Known about the structure:
36 strands, eight-stranded mixed beta sheet, alpha+beta
Amino acid sequence: xxxxxxxxxxxxxxxxxxxxxxxxxxxxxxxxxxxxxxxxxxxxxxxxxxxxxxxxxxxxxxxxxxxxxxxxxxxxxxxxxxxxxxxxxxxxxxxxxxxxxxxxxxxxxxxxxxxxxxxxxxxxxxxxxxxxxxxxxxxxxxxxxxxxxxxxxxxxxxxxxxxxxxxxxxxxxxxxxxxxxxxxxxxxxxxxxxxxxxxxxxxxxxxxxxxxxxxxxxxxxxxxxxxxxxxxxxxxxxxxxxxxxxxxxxxxxxxxxxxxxxxxxxxxxxxxxxxxxxxxxxxxxxxxxxxxxxxxxxxxxxxxxxxxxxxxxxxxxxxxxxxxxxxxxxxxxxxxxxxxxxxxxxxxxxxxxxxxxxxxxxxxxxxxxxxxxxxxxxxxxxxxxxxxxxxxxxxxxxxxxxxxxxxxxxxxxxxxxxxxxxxxxxxxxxxxxxxxxxxxxxxxxxxxxxxxxxxxxxxxxxxxxxxxxxxxxxxxxxxxxxxxxxxxxxxxxxxxxxxxxxxxxxxxxxxxxxxxxxxxxxxxxxxxxxxxxxxxxxxxxxxxxxxxxxxxxxxxxxxxxxxxxxxxxxxxxxxxxxxxxxxxxxxxxxxxxxxxxxxxxxxxxxxxxxxxxxxxxxxxx
Length: 621
């Protein structure tokens, strides 16, 4: 059957997309069970914890979500006996939840907590207190008996300052604590330090400085961590005499892939140590692979279906818990046996139908600043094709961050478009993670230039290859990706329409409204104020809004404090003054990223209708 692109009927409704895309947030072995956290879109995005035995561990209205560093992470953990520890979303206190009992608060009201970890029976967390003018953060140890719920002095503060902290790790003998620390004047992927504290003497030292991640103790005298000392994040081992290093770090992985990622959230783990001396690690070159490294230095790949944003969440014996997404499966949680090689899906991870969702095409385009990596998802339908003389419309996606990357994962959200005859191109522009420090640093001082050049090069390269209709290419992005969308529309000539989800339009406004974690982010991406103020003005899409002459859809969360509504409303007002076709939608109760099912549905349906108007077809909802 033949039908024009964009008009194909599809079983992927906006409601089915919302229902099929819960956000997974870590997994743990708990006795004979496996627990994992996932969002519930139908309940406003509440984050619950579920068990492999089929029951819900954390019932409504409780929701495990951290606000530390604004992006959170590590909002729950559990011990082997089945006691759940979690950060409650609305008050940011830590709670203990024993089987059969009600949750009991362990911390007093006020500060936020995240990065929870039980080690040697002791509960550690990262604490952030923004209630006073002097913002303070700390690595703390929380009594498990509840005595600190109303007495902050009962909480043991191991280190506290205005710096940022992540990944506290207690030595096996309980005498030393390691963590990652950065000043905030640079982002953690630019410079972060591995620090050590002697719990007996209170003495601290810096063990390593580059862009450290995830310290783990192999023994009382060996510390393993990730760093990009050779231009790619890799796993290193260092020998210690107390808290003093006894030699240079030894690389355990080769420097041809990344074992690590931008430290946006506190819960991810990119490697784990096994009791028998083996190491299991994620290695990233755009997509992920999971490898096992015995002590002899050899390497064996684990054939797992997950190959995107994989986190190695837990390990017991030879069993490893993996969470992530995949190019041929839905997002999920898997249990891998490293001895037998078997990998079993625990939650999600269902194979997709290639007739509806074929594997994406990894593409590389030549750009003005070097190669540009991307993944193409051509239109796909088992029963319908377009006429041979018609080229498909495409939607170019721009990820947020900007220090992040996409992995070529499949999803119902993408099939929502491709099954209707609209192709999708997901671009990892210069500045993205997943390709090493040099690719990441391509954006230094060049935000609004390199990212825009690269998405334009990718779109034009797709059209030049005869894969897309050059007159029907739209662009969509959220947050930092929304900035690139608006900046690309200012350039003009490539994109016929644009969708900005909570996008940045004015750099000075962004800096004025910025939260602590990203307070100096723009210093590295553009330049510091006040010296770079003219550059801020020149780069901002709002300054050149009069150059935008194509339809624009603006979608915004009313409660967003990362990119407040004022950013979208400023560009809305500029477009309205000139009579440019635009639509602005403000979603009450939504923050930075849409979590509620009704919001996901409305946003997708509006986007589809918007593309239909821009490209001249009537889509099937």
